[in-house]
Amino acid sequence: MAYSFKVYISDGKEFFEYRDGQKTTKKSFAFSQSLMDLLYLDIWFYGDLFEKMRRAVHSLYSSRDSQWSDEIKKGLDTLARQHIYFEFLRLDWMNRLKKAEEQEFKEIVDLLPYKKLTHIPSNIDTMQDQLLDLWRVVLDIQSPDKPIQKKMVDYYNEKGRDKLNTFQFQPQPMSFEVIDKKTFTEVLYPKDIYDIIDFFVRECVKREHRFRVCKNCGKYFALTGHINTEYCDRPFDSAGRTCKEMGALRLWEKKKAENPALEAYSKAYKKRFAWIKYGKITKEAFYEWAEKAREKRELCLKGYMTLDEFRTWLNY
Q1: Cα distance between residue 122 and residue 47, in whole Å
Q2: Helices and strands counted in the chain (H then E)
Q3: What are 15's strand-pairing partners?
């Protein structure tokens, strides 16, 4: 083959290692990150791109003109930049296109089965719904406190469950080998992108990885540290602030609203900080004042200073 692509997990990280010709690339992510990214990927945003590639494949069937190969390659390059799983799709179809060109487009329909390409958006959309349901029932930290094995058995044996709307595990093209001369582990050599999805879903189940819905963005995230963590690390706004940072900000705003001493401190802090810009106070003087202000704030919160006394001190 002109390319290779393998997936494995080591030291709590997921690795994607692929070779295209003489070039080998290795990428790593936190375990389950790629699956979570796919779970919330707006796949229909790329619907027009898939449709454009479908038309190009059909045009290639009839014309055998390499310009349509170039059109498909452009689409694959675009997709590969959006998610690591699509890197495998790009390599696989690049190899198919190369073979088709070398064979002067003989047996092109078998080499380039357009449905395998153009059905991807609907298949992923369906799998996203299936996985969200599986997560809700089995892997959500808020789900019933039962062993994961028990919940999986109950989930897949549930009376009346529609199999079409339930994620179905498939046989995996696996190896068991040495990685980087230091790790011996299972390695996936996918046949399609669905093998990669299947691989990480079953690893989440096997490892009994737990997840929670972020209180800020409403998306699942892996609980890798404290199980009571309520916010994820996803970027949330155009300023680059994460959900965790937004959660801390909202908690602070809530505390301020409930406590006039915190509100007074925050108002005075912002006022004096603005003075730096206008030359009314030096940075050194501001930080010296801020340290004392925090001390006075704690005295007020603990009842050793009245609110009026604290406000008077802030405005001296």
Answers
A1: 9
A2: 13, 7
A3: 8, 28
Neighbour count for residue 68 (Cβ, 10 Å): 20
Kindly report the backbone phi and psi dihedral angles of residue 208, in degrees, each rounded to the nearest multiple of 5, phi listed first: 50, 45
Q: Which residues contact 52 (CB under 8 A, 6 or more apart)?
A: 71, 75
Paired with 235 in beta bridges are: 242
Q: Which of 30, 29, 38, 8 is nearest to 225 (CA)?
A: 30
Radius of gyration of the chain (CA): 27
CA 111/CA 122 separation, integer angstroms: 22
CA distance 8 to 31: 10
For 76, other C-beta atoms within 10 Å of its C-beta total 21
Q: With residue 36 as reference, give the H or E element that holds it.
A: helix 33-39
d(CA 69, CA 53): 9
48 vs 194: CA distance, rounded Å? 21
**89-145 confidence digits (pLDDT tens):** 999 999 999 999 998 888 899 999 999 999 999 999 999 999 999 999 999 999 999
Task: Return the domain boundaries, the chain.
Answer: 3-165, 259-314
Identify the bridge partners of residue 23 per DSSP, sorted by sequence position: 20
Whole-angstrom Cα distance, residue 49 to residue 46? 5
pTM score of the predicted model: 0.79
Two structure tokens written together for 238:
């155009």
